[in-house]
Amino acid sequence: MKIGIIGLPYSGKTTFYKSLKAVDQSEDKQARGKTSSSIIKVPDERLDYLTQVFNPKRKVHATLEVADFMGDKDPEIPTFNNKFSTVAKNFDAFILIVRGFEDPTIPHIKATIDIERDIKTFLEDAALFDLSFLEKRIENIEKELNRSKNKEQIIKTREILRKWYEKLLSGSLLFDLELTKEELLLQKNYQLLTLKPLIIAVNFSEDSISSSSLIINNLREKFKIKNISIEPFFAKIEYELSQLNEEETKEFMENFGLEEPALSRLLRTTYELLGLQSFFTVGEDECRAWTIKKGMTAQEAAGVIHSDFYQKFIRAEVVHFDDFKVCGSFAKCKEKGVFRLEGKDYLVQDGDIMHIRHN
């Protein structure tokens, strides 16, 4: 999964990206033009606990690829220009950093701090971007239709694109659309911006920690849109946190009244919006978190581990993490009756610990 970090200049998005990298101790996967990308380990306290219990040779986190798109600093240039469009199609979701802090030494490119204005501008730009794309694509399909002998599939595609176009033209966004299987396939091909999950991270200063909750709640009411989540973020604090060890982090957070790092919450929210979940495999050699789509079966999850496991699947030994933590061992889980054998159609739950039996 690839997540794009976007936002206006001086909003704090590069600090957000650097904080993620510092937490993960990772290097840039690529630095091409003005876009940098890193593979980020997803923090998971459950994996940390399992690693303590099994003391394996290695611990393997679930990962996300996060890209920092460096846009133009000219406020007159639209949010989505040609440079952006060349990379946007590769993103599965976006994290939009919106500035919510005052700093006279770093002026906002639009002169004033206005969170609602900046969110609306982004959504309007995204809609215009998609409208322009759909208009051109529909024109091309009309030409293709005149030349083609097999018109049925082309007509179906045209009708779907027209449906999306009309919705955008009416002033609505596509975030809340319940897509059919055909529409999902088209979205993979066309990668419309307003069909991608969006996290809006409002970047506050440390002085606004106590007031940020009220502001965020008000924003959530005003932008109550499916597949959009609005979260607070404290760039300077998060970057400082990323430089500390575990004990120092806990003390630092207590001093600022923070329950958890915003970065952890934002990554978890990304999982939720993308419909992702984790299951675990454990042992002396390795404890690993695997990322799968919600609704995947045990056989499909086995195929994520290894393609042969899908083909040769017999059964899955399953115990949920919560049950394992209460019992403390697989032996106790069996005694309590929470250790199960599941077939290929079992729907994997977030937090399942699984061992795959196969030929």
Overview features:
about 350 residues; Ubiquitin-like (UB roll); seven-stranded mixed beta sheet; Rossmann fold; alpha/beta; DNA polymerase, domain 1
Biggest sheet, open or closed, and with what strands and sense? 7 strands, mixed
* Number of E-type strands: 13
At the third CATH level, what is the topology name of the largest domain? Rossmann fold
Distance from N terminus to C terminus (CA atoms, Å) equals: 30 Å
Radius of gyration: 23 Å
Low-pLDDT segments: 25-33, 72-78
- The name of the CATH superfamily of the largest domain reads P-loop containing nucleotide triphosphate hydrolases
- The total number of structural domains is 3
Order of helices and strands: EHEEHEEHEHHHEHEHHHEEHHEHHEE
> Which structural class is indicated by helix and strand composition?
alpha/beta
Percent range of helical residues: 40-55%
| Helical run tally | 14
Strand order in the sheet with the most strands: 2-3-5-1-6-7-8
- Indicate the mean pLDDT: 86
Which CATH class of the largest domain is shown?
Answer: Alpha Beta
CATH architecture of the largest domain: 3-Layer(aba) Sandwich
Form type: flat
